[in-house]
Design brief:
By secondary structure, this protein is of the alpha/beta class. It has seven helices and eight strands. A hairpin with a 6-residue loop joins strand 5 and strand 6. The longest helix is centred in the N-terminal third of the chain and has 17 residues. The N and C termini lie close together (11 Å).
Amino acid sequence: MILYLHGFTSGPQSKKVQALAARMAERGLGDRLIAPQLPASPAAAIALADALIAKVGAGGTALTLAGSSLGGYYATHLAEKHGLKAVLINPAVVAALELERYLGPQTWLYSGETFDFTRRHIAELAALEVSRLADPRHYWLLAEAGDETLDYRHAVARYAGARQTILPGGDHSFTRWDDYLDEVLAFAGLP
């Protein structure tokens, strides 16, 4: 099972989620992907993810996290909390600082709904900070050096000791995601 956590203002309608869902469906694994719309509040997003992880765990199914941008920050917190593996796609590393510039009104990309990103959200992000990775081998970092939003070198340093795929060029969307779908499924232990 894969729990996919999208980035800031994104959603389960993103190209990455849709590509992963299509590949999993092709392989008869369509029911093994969970990709919720996360709330704007980081605390609420983590509470939702915790509930989904508990539900999957109660069924005895192995779970791997995948997180893009802010979702990668969330995935790191959750992987450490629950002892899970995680694929991180151009992840936010210090989200409380990296998202400071987005304080104020925001719009969800796919629904068009708006929300206010506030200092309370920044404090919630800071509370999720993971000071040290218990086992970097539980992580796979996928990053493109051309990311215009986040400095990929911060992720390289943060996830030292983890499997890392750092590609030249690209952008924050991780343009070569489709090239890695089969490897992501293998990392998650899916056939």
